[in-house]
Amino acid sequence: MVIPSQGKNKLLAWKFIEWALATKEGNEVWINHGGIPGYIPAFELDSFKNGTYKATGDQKVNELSAKLIPQVQDNWFDIQLNDAAKTIWDDSIGKAIEKNSDSKAALQQIQDDIMKAVKPDLDRLKSQLGIQ
């Protein structure tokens, strides 16, 4: 959620965020619409633990999620893959449109350029994750 710097009701917006993310009632709304609450104490709500999904044969998968999610280790990787890719995409797609380039060739070139630019960070990320 975002509170824009130009917002006229920042305090009210913050109160809404607190309600939506850190109260039983707000988390019930997330849960009732199929979401997984970001507020770990909400994992104990009956509406979350007893929730079922048709796709899993009406099993209570949230019950398992409630046990596993708190055990997930927080990892932070300082890698700018998206920023580099977005810059190349934005610049290259604009040029391809201006020049009326062949779309297949333009997209292949963009892919090649992005992969070349992000390769060092991608290799480092793979190394940190233990992926060869």
Poorly predicted segments: none
- Give the biggest sheet: none
Percent range for β-strand residues: under 5%
* Distance, first to last CA: 36 Å
Task: Give the class from helix and strand content and strand pairing.
Answer: mainly alpha
Question: Main traits of this protein?
Answer:
single chain; 132 residues; mainly alpha
Write the layout of secondary structure elements.
Elements (H helix, E strand, L loop, with lengths): L9 H13 L1 H9 L13 H4 L11 H8 L12 H19 L3 H27 L3
Helix pairs in contact: 1-2, 5-6
Describe the fold and architecture.
The chain is extended, with a radius of gyration of 22 Å. The mean pLDDT is 88. It is 61% helix and 0% strand. The protein is mainly alpha-helical and 132 residues long. The two termini are 36 Å apart.
TL;DR of this structure?
The chain is mainly α and 132 residues long.
